[in-house]
Amino acid sequence: MFFVVSKVFGFFVQPSNLFLCVGILGLVLTATRRARAGRALMAAGLLLLAVAGLSPLGNWLIEPLENRFPPWNPAGGAPDGIVVLGGAISPDVSFPRAQAGLNEAAERVTAAVELARRYPAARLLYSGGNPWRRAAPGEADVAVALLERMGVARERIIVENKSRNTVENAVYSLELAAPKPGERWLLVTSAYHMPRSIGIFRRLGFDVEAYPVDWRTAGDEGPLFPFDSVGSGLRRTDTAVREWFGLVAYFVTGRCSALFPAPLCPGSDVRFRLPPAPY
User: Mean pLDDT, to the nearest integer, of 171-186?
Assistant: First the structure.
């Protein structure tokens, strides 16, 4: 039920969809006795689309998410395992085309290959199913073939191909990884998605270390400049707003360890302060 509600709610949370709906509602109202209100809604929808698509709003919203966790520091030694969250490959495109269809989050895959080569003893778990059909082949099935072609031995790869969202990523990854006390596991995902992902894994007691990739902003300089196309700006704004609402929803429903998870202080452990996770 949570999955269905999250997908429906997520559609309307995205500013591009919400503002378009406002404009369409306005258009419908122009044919009624509330034509004046309809014209106002149409103008508001158009203005909001322009602001979300051309202004730096998307960068302003996404940068705090991306800056929450710093790049991973390898000084602590080699990890025992690496969890890579799906989202970089589209199975709906990959299977019909018989080729891995990578998107703008492709750094999740390239970072996995880089880490696998740097730490040959570490296990590699790729987590990603089909977001709409659990029984259908998932993203991880495409990823494992791609990783093999890029030089990662098949026996090193753990395939998790049932998950449809980040909660299920964490639940099934924990089952398959079965981390032992003292083991160090990295979590590879997009920087903007790292706070929510870390919070969910912590909520389950899976103590992973953040390995953020796929930054969308340049840092302190990026947010100052507007976008050169409405499509680019809307995509960035949609991504950021969806992630912020996801943080709130997952925290309120008890699926995330904190409202805005951050790097832990040495010696801290959120597992001892939380009741059992509701999964």
Answer: 96
